[in-house]
Amino acid sequence: MPKKYILLFPLLFLAFLSIAQDSEAVTFEMLVSKDKLGINERLRVDFVMNKDGDDFNPPDFAGFRVLMGPSQSISSSWVNGVRSYSKTYSYTLAPTKRGKINIRQASITIGGKVYKSLAKQIEVTAAVDKPNAQKTIEDFADESLHLVAEVSKSNPYMNEAVSVVYKLYVSPSISVSNYRPLDNPKYNNFWSQDIPVSVRNAKNGTYKGKQYRYVILKRVVLYPQKSGKLEIEPLSLDVTVDVPTNKRDFFGGRIYSQTNKTVSAGKRTINVKALPTQGKPADFSGAVGDFDFSVTASKTSLNASESLQAKVEVNGKGNLKLFQLPEPNLPSSLEVYEPEFDEKVRTTLSGMQGKVTNSYTIIPSFRGKYPIQPISFSYFDPKTEQYKTLSSDEILINVVEGPTSASGNTASQTGSKQAVIATSDKFNFIKLKPNLTAIGSDYFLGSTSFYLWLLLPLLLIPLAIIFGKKRDAIASDVAGNKIRRANKLARKYLSAAKKSLGNKEAFYIALEKGLHNYLKAKLKIETSEFSKDKIMTLLTEKQVDDTTRNGFIALLKNCEMARYSPFSEVQMKQDYEKASEVISYLDKQL
């Protein structure tokens, strides 16, 4: 390759960087250390721009006395191939009077254009006990550390998704070395799902108009289960903060002092709107979101005694885990088994999305045509604030071969009389001359096979005695039978949790789901009613003893705590064994 082309590449790269830098939007703004201060305090004013400029023209600072400035600082860095540039002019001011004082606009010329900052209003009050020069480390940490709960919607409908993101804002002047949760929020009257934060990367942001670094600590999706004003309890943290002091070490480096601060996100109130009653369909089961609905059959033509699968499926975005699927209206002449429920749902900050399915196994016994009548599914769309109803198509099952039902050859026939058609081969005379043949000389009576079959019952008597004793022993073992029934019931509802032992997140999600499914089967209640207060009330009404009730609620609390607290594998095994015992005791009392 010629040398002139080799030298051309660096020039093209520099030109590309210059074009990319020029395409960035120009910002020029005024930042103040505080909006309200005492007359004996000091105010810092920074004029920050993201590109170099000329002819900087500061305001006259009427009502203030300039103690220091302008001091100039420049910051430039490259991160992942992207250049970050910042230039700052700083002033230190002392107020000369009380009242509300306006700091007027400043201007600068960047790239041939004049940019102006926005004016700021500062309130100067009477002298304060602790002016800037006398602030303690705790005061400085209080001003530089904030925990905020950002709620996506403050006025949602019942069963509409609401996301809460907890952010810790830290001023660039301090650093955080450690933190731990003190009081985790309890989401009463909400269905909640944590969204794990796998990597906690610090990002740049603003809080109340000031530059901060922030990190996302916790994300959760909530579905309100009742209307009215609902409170979200605060998240509280104990944070270890390193605060710079005015002291220097031997080499001139700034000395930091460490302190612990407790920060809280504060309570948030959400005003939940009830679903409208006007236009509410009769078959509405609590679905809120945007969905599609279908009923399908694996095949529509088959022989008698063969099986087919009929699937009732809802897919889309909304509270997929919090409503019941409609049941198909099937002809009584079809043998139908209990449906198998399947859900493929993932939860993001915008809510649940995926699909839920009930799969019915159907076996026809007779030849004929069996219609599966259309069924409907209703849901509420919070975007349009209207109810919507979707209907499936009719499915005709054609059984081509098999016996004919005594009541007719189709399942769609009504109770009206039908003509009986006689055919010529239904009635015949009895034959008087039988067509018989000899069976031969090999008779079964007296043969070896005859004596073997004769002795077989005698040989089976000892086996029957042994089997009977074993059965009696098992029946008399009352405690053992209780344990076996409890283990069987626990395996049924906790099988998924046992498979996930060692994986904290998957184990406690499966454990919580197993406990909920057990109560749903035993108490015949909807999933939307699953709050700890409701469960405690129901178990009390069923006269379940205090120990069992408290044990069940403790397990639910462990499932919630495990989402944001460390749990060992030993603790998981203990919770699994405890769940088996609680289900056993509940089964006896319910």
UniProtKB/TrEMBL annotation:
Keywords: Membrane, Signal, Transmembrane, Transmembrane helix. InterPro entries: BatD. The chain crosses the membrane at residues 450-468. Residues 1-20 form the signal peptide. This is Protein BatD.
